[in-house]
Amino acid sequence: MKIKTAILSMGLFLLLSGFNKQNDCLKFRNGTFKIIDPATKKVCIITRKDDIQTERMEDSNETYDFKITWVDDCTYTVKPTATTIERNRDVLKVGLMTVTIVKTTDSSYTQKIEVEKNPDFKRFDNVYVVKKKEKKTMD
Could you list the mean pLDDT of each consecutive 10-residue stretch along the chain, which spans 139 residues? Predict the structure, then answer.
């Protein structure tokens, strides 16, 4: 009897742990984020709102827009918009990208990127929330 209770308790714990991870991903659906490329140290600023993600390198004014489709709470696909393709046809070489949020904290997440046209490619990045600066008011 004790073994059945232990197994049931462990199963319930694992199930609830899975739900917590799923709910943590939801807070990263919209907002402003940054990724620091480990090789070049360049910073990419990402703004995500609903089904559009805009990316801009910190030292550039050039932006690229992507259509995102959420597959589940922690996974979404990234596809360049027509405007982005017009600006840079090289984005078509990559194909559909799938991003999975694999770990979350209060102010960041770790993502795994997989690329449709290169099945051996897998990349992990730490993505940080960019906090909005509060406007000071004169009272």
Answer: 50 45 82 92 95 94 95 97 93 92 96 93 94 66
